[in-house]
Design a protein that fits this description.
mainly alpha
Length: 150
Amino acid sequence: MWPSNTKAISELNAILKQLNKVSYNKIPKELLTEIEKNATVDVSYIKSNIPLEELNLEQETKEMLAVISYQYFCDEEERKTWQKELQENEKKYQETLQQKYNPEELFKDTKFEKDQSSQNIPKENALIEYKEPFFTKLWNFIKKFWKRSK
C-alpha cells in the first residue's frame, strides 16, 4: 500500500532516477512504474550533487528508501548487521518504555508521599464552633419574647 503523501513518493522517484544503471536495474520494473505513476509533485530541489543527509526529505521518503535499499541493494552480511541494529534499537526502546510505564512505579504517588513525610503534625479532632447568624439570633429572641408574654 502506498502512502498518501505524494510528495514523499515524488522525492523517492527523483532519488531513484539519479541512481546508476546497475543499481536502478536491481529494482523491479513494476515497482518503478508504480512509483512513477504516483509521483505527481515537482521536486526539482533534489539534485545529484547534494548528499541525501543535507536534503530536507520527508520521513516517509526516508522509510521507503531504507526498505528499498534493504530489499534490493544489501547483501546477506549487510542485512544481518542491519537486523542486529534494528534489534538493539528495539531493545533500547522497550527498556525506555519499561522505565516510563513500570507497573510497580506507575501508581506510586511520590508527590503525596513527600507531602505526608514533610507534615508530621498530629491531626486533632477538634469541634467546630458553630456561629449563629445575626438574623437567626434576632428571630429566636422575638420568638422567646412572644412565648413569655402569652
